[in-house]
Amino acid sequence: MIKLVAIDLDGTLLDSKKEISSRNKAVLAQAKAAGVKVVLCTGRPLAAIEGYLETLDLRDNGDYSITFNGGLVQKNDTGEIIEKNPMPLEDIHVLHGLAETLNVPLDILSDGIVLQLPVSKEYTSLYSQLNNLLTFEPVELVDLTAERIYNKAVVAIDEDYLDEQIKKIPSEFYDKYEVIKTRSNLLEFMPKGITKAYGISLLAKDLAIEQEEIMTIGDEENDLPMIEYAGLGVAMENAVPRVKELADVITDTNDNDGVAKAIEKFVLEPLKGGN
User: Fold this and answer.
1) I need a labelling partner for 239 at 20 to 30 A (CA). Which of 205, 215, 250, 251 fits?
2) pLDDT for the residue numbered 100
3) Residues 105 and 87 sit within 8 Å (Cβ to Cβ)
């Protein structure tokens, strides 16, 4: 039986309008009422998903989210961090140097604050357009201190230019960091080994849930680790090819209630004594 369902947001639970359909909402409510842990698993900070948590009634004691692509595991009702893996300041300096070399903008997420570093004079970050619920703060590299928490670094820029610059990233950066495109125009850097699967594994351990009792649903490259990790990895029909290739099953698209259909079939039906 599935006891925990971890769900990506963009391209998965959210439709093309960035909304949660009534069917997805109803089915997730049924799963929660049946005792299944419904966990949003996202690259965003908690502050950027609070509206979705409210919509889904996932703000009770015992509700959790995995944020920053596995960097934090948090309680939804209080925001308390129960697991964390931040980046050290020296990594921010290293990534700042890479951004200078690539001539791309660089934003650093520090909990709910986005630190905007003035790296490129030619290209402006698009991150504020992608996450307008966050607080943005222009800073200089020299002003950053080791005491501050740094969750991840992001490059948000035109897709075509981003893809060209990605080709220039030296291989050693892939050895040291998780380097993942989470949207077509967004590249993220996380500490090595910090993935959505890692965050899910920590939460599952805290809740005494076994790996085979976990279902994950996603569509993008940063969902690959959790798709492979779960007892049942589900890809959206609109997922990138690699995710669909590695998933155990493929559900419908994000615009056709793919999340609800997967949960109905693999979570709720077994609970009712179905297949």
Assistant:
1) 205
2) 97
3) no
